[in-house]
Amino acid sequence: MRPYSIDPYRAWVLHLLRGMQLKVLSFILLLMPLFQNCGSSFQVSDAEGIGSMSPQSLSSLENRIRQSIGLACTSSSECEVVVAGAKPCGGPSRYFVFSTSTSDVVAIEQLTDEYTQLQLMLNQSSNNIGTCDVLVVPSSAACVSNSCVPSF
């Protein structure tokens, strides 16, 4: 009797596991070129109208939204809230308060829609994960001291 013996069933299981390890490793090596550019920015077709996708383009778009916003108001009826962005777990990532009397409402809506689509595509393309926290969005906005502010 050998000092270490293995029954035929265990030998068969070990043989299968070794074969599976080789298959899994081969599969991973086969897929590696597909993931070579993960995390880098890339171009989206012009048909989608978004352009270059990167965190920098998202930040630039947010700056354009902020530049389009005016907060000056004379009454609360002029103040609005718009949500934008897309968290990996769902829901908006931010909100903006603005005055309808001193802002280009159509431009803000277009820019926030573009921001949301871009962030959604960035999340999907880079497999972002999030904390799944929920952004508390103000129910309305009010004019306080001639400036629009969020009201919770």
Question: What does the model show?
Answer:
By secondary structure, the chain is an alpha+beta fold. It is 39% helix and 17% strand. The protein contains 3 helices and 6 strands. It has helices spanning 8-31, 55-68, 105-125; strands at 42-43, 52-53, 79-84, 94-99, 140-144, 147-151. The strands form 3 sheets. Strands 1-2 form a two-stranded antiparallel ribbon. A hairpin with an 8-residue loop joins strand 1 (42-43) and strand 2. Helix 2 packs antiparallel against helix 3 (105-125). The longest helix is centred in the N-terminal third of the chain and has 24 residues, at 8-31. The chain is elongated, with a radius of gyration of 26 Å. 14% of the residues are buried. The model is unreliable at 34-50 (pLDDT under 50).
Number of discrete helical segments: 3
β-strand amount: 15-25%
Mean pLDDT over all positions: 80
- Element string (H = helix, E = strand): HEEHEEHEE
Unreliable stretches, pLDDT < 50, 5 or more residues? 34-50
Summed up, what is this model?
This protein is an alpha+beta fold. It has three helices and six strands, in the order H-E-E-H-E-E-H-E-E.
Keywords summarizing the entry:
single chain, 152 residues, alpha+beta, two-stranded antiparallel ribbon, 3 helices, 17% strand, elongated
Question: How are the elements arranged and paired?
Answer:
Layout (H helix, E strand, L loop, with lengths): L7 H24 L10 E2 L8 E2 L1 H14 L10 E6 L9 E6 L5 H21 L14 E5 L2 E5 L1
Antiparallel strand pairs: 1-2, 3-4, 5-6
Helix pairs in contact: 2-3
